[in-house]
Every structure is written in structure tokens, then in C-alpha cells.
């Protein structure tokens, strides 16, 4: 029987970013007037120290969030033999399960029929409620993810609109519906090992069960308390490399909270597989020389997928360290 994890330090007061003042402005042509907004300093600090923050007053109606959570729980509660209809040779883009974790991956949600095609494998007769609910959620969070990315670019002192267009507009978007449990229900048991995402940016909606933890720069673990109807945004290794290491990638894990199963919905944006990740000249100077060699995102992804026994995925990014 696995031993419980060492008790983590209690929850930390992570940065809370209220995006309400930016929602309309981030759709404009000229974003230069936002560069001196005081909220950007708070966002910059969050990305430097944690690589993770809460997002509140995000503009997505509560009804959409609640309906999406219910639809996701209904999906996760289906019999295993039904879920396995979605399993393919690419588990990250279909259905995957381990004793403590399961996930439905909906690949490239930028394509209008992506979710519908997956639904047909589960429900050949169709399921309009799930399909419409999940597609509406994906559209809303996709727009929010774009706004958040532009805010982060602004916090770096960059021309957000220009850099979004040249580096992030062609990102692939994936939706994952995740379920966490423990067959032995051992409180404190790790249900998702510690790791940093290889992706660019994740916008995560979680239920109120709790269990998500983040590791500080000093190596200590803290609980990430659920904040009702908010999102948790975390940066991944590829974005860390793109910022020349200026911003962190959040090392996180999920631990078992007892008999109540945890659910989350992750909207993940990744650079195109063939894209060369190379920090812009604006983020490099004599005091902050280049930290990483240029590399294609596919190479980082390959290292993650072929070295699954290594739990702390931040080690993979160091393969590309040095010039």
C-alpha cells in the first residue's frame, strides 16, 4: 500500500487577477493604453513567482460553467465499456485512464466538429445536450484564453496584438475533462503526479472538492483552494522557454481528498508541433542572456511522452538549456 504524502503546508494566498476591466479593451486594435495598468504588475509578479493565478470576473456566465460541470460529471460517470469507445492510439487526444485518474481529450477544438465527432463515438444516437453544452463552453473559454494571453504579453512589455498574431494565433486548442479518484481512498495519496505542463497555457475550471497543489520556488507544496466560479491559469514549459525563463512554469499535482471524486475541465493551448520556440529579442539582454536553444515544440512533447517515469517534467526543458 502506498504511503500518504507528507502533509503539505496549508493553502497559499495565490494572486487573484480581476480581468473585468480588460475584457472589452483586449478586443481593440490598439492595446498600448493598457501597458501601464497597475493590474499588469500584479500579473507579472504572479507569472514570475508562481506561473499560476486565479482569474475572476472573467465574463463567462455562471450558468455555462454549472451546465458544463454537470455534463462533464455525467460523462465521467458512464460505464467503462462506453468510455473505451473513445480510446485510440493517441490517449492524450481520446480517452485514457489509470487507477486514480481518467481524462477525455477533445483534440483541436478550433475545428467546429471536434467535440461532435468524439460525442458520436460515445453516443452513436447523438447527445445534443452534452455536445451543445461542451461546445459553448469551449468557445467561451477559447476567447478568454486569447484575452489572457494578450494580458500576459502586455505584462512582458511587448506589443500584445502583434506578438499574439505572430506567435500565438496558430496555437492548437484542446479540451480535457478530467476525473480524479483513489481506489484505496487513501487521503493524501497522489492521484496525479507532480509535473509542469509542456503546453503553452492552461485555463482550468475545477469543482469545489480541492486537491490541487502547487510547488513553490523553494520546493514546498501548497494547497490551491477552489475559488467558486473562477479559473486557475497556469503556464507551461514551452511558454517558460518562449519568455527566456522570465516566467515560471507551474509545478503542480493532485492529491486524494477522500471519498469525493474530483473533476476539472482544462482548456489547453499549445504551440504548433513544428513551431520553433525561440525567445524574442525584446526579452533578451546582457542581464538576461539567452537560456534555451531554439527547439521545436514536437521535441519537447516527445521527451515528455517517452520519459513518463520522470515525474517532474520541468527537467525536460533543461535538455534545451544553453546556447
Report on the structure:
This protein has 323 residues and is an alpha+beta fold. The chain has a single domain, classed as Jelly Rolls. It is built from nine helices and 14 strands. It has helices at 38-49, 62-76, 80-83, 114-122, 128-155, 160-168, 237-242, 297-306, 314-317; strands at residues 16-18, 52-56, 95-97, 101-106, 172-180, 190-196, 201-206, 212-215, 221-223, 231-235, 251-255, 262-270, 276-277, 295-296. Strands 1-2-10-7-12-5-4-3 form an eight-stranded mixed β-sheet. The longest helix has 28 residues, at 128-155. The protein is globular, with a radius of gyration of 19 Å. The protein starts with 15 loop residues before the first strand and ends in a 6-residue tail after the last helix.
Provide a quick synopsis of the model.
The chain has helices spanning 38-49, 62-76, 80-83, 114-122, 128-155, 160-168, 237-242, 297-306, 314-317; strands spanning 16-18, 52-56, 95-97, 101-106, 172-180, 190-196, 201-206, 212-215, 221-223, 231-235, 251-255, 262-270, 276-277, 295-296. With 323 residues, it is α+β, with helices and mostly antiparallel strands.
CATH homologous superfamily title:
B-lactam Antibiotic, Isopenicillin N Synthase, Chain
Overall geometry comes to: globular
CATH class: Mainly Beta
Order of helices and strands: EHEHHEEHHHEEEEEEHEEEEHH
Strand % is: 15-25%
Termini gap:
45 Å
Largest sheet: 8 strands, mixed
List low-pLDDT spans: none
Radius of gyration of CA atoms, rounded to a whole number: 19 Å
The CATH topology corresponds to Jelly Rolls
- The main sheet orders its strands as 1-2-10-7-12-5-4-3
Quote the average pLDDT. 87
- How many domain regions? 1
Tell me the CATH architecture: Sandwich
Percentage of residues in helical conformation: 25-40%
Number of strands: 14
> Structural class per helix/strand content?
alpha+beta
The DSSP helix count reads: 9
Amino acid at each position: 500500500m502506498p504511503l500518504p504524502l507528507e502533509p503539505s503546508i496549508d493553502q497559499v494566498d495565490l494572486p487573484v487577477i480581476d480581468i473585468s476591466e480588460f475584457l472589452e479593451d483586449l478586443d481593440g486594435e490598439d492595446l498600448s493604453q493598457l501597458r501601464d495598468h497597475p493590474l499588469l504588475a500584479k500579473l507579472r509578479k504572479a507569472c514570475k513567482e508562481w506561473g499560476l493565478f486565479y482569474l475572476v470576473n472573467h465574463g463567462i456566465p455562471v450558468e455555462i460553467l454549472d451546465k458544463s460541470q454537470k455534463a462533464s460529471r455525467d460523462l465521467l460517470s458512464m460505464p467503462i465499456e462506453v468510455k473505451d469507445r473513445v480510446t485510440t492510439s493517441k490517449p492524450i487526444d481520446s480517452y485514457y485512464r489509470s487507477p486514480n485518474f481518467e481524462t477525455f481529450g477533445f483534440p483541436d477544438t478550433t475545428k467546429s466538429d471536434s467535440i461532435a465527432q468524439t460525442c458520436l463515438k460515445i453516443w452513436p444516437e447523438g447527445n445534443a445536450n452534452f455536445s451543445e453544452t461542451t461546445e459553448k463552453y469551449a468557445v467561451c473559454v477559447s476567447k478568454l484564453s486569447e484575452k489572457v494571453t494578450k494580458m500576459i504579453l502586455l505584462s512582458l512589455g511587448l506589443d500584445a496584438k502583434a506578438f499574439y498574431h505572430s506567435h500565438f494565433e496558430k496555437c492548437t486548442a484542446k479540451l480535457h475533462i478530467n476525473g480524479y479518484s483513489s481506489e484505496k481512498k487513501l487521503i493524501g495519496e497522489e492521484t496525479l503526479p507532480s509535473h509542469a505542463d509542456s503546453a503553452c497555457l492552461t485555463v482550468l475550471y475545477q469543482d469545489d472538492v480541492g486537491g490541487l497543489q502547487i510547488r513553490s520556488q523553494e520546493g514546498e507544496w501548497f494547497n490551491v483552494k477552489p475559488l467558486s466560479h473562477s479559473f486557475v491559469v497556469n503556464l507551461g514549459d514551452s511558454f517558460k522557454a518562449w519568455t527566456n525563463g522570465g516566467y515560471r512554469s507551474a509545478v503542480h499535482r493532485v492529491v486524494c481528498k477522500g471519498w469525493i471524486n474530483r473533476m476539472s475541465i482544462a482548456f489547453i493551448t499549445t504551440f504548433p508541433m513544428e513551431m520553433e520556440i525561440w525567445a524574442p529579442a525584446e526579452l533578451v539582454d546582457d542581464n538576461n542572456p539567452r537560456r534555451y536553444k531554439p527547439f521545436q515544440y514536437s521535441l519537447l512533447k516527445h521527451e515528455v511522452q517517452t520519459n513518463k517515469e520522470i515525474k517532474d517534467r520541468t527537467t525536460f526543458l533543461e535538455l534545451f538549456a544553453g546556447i
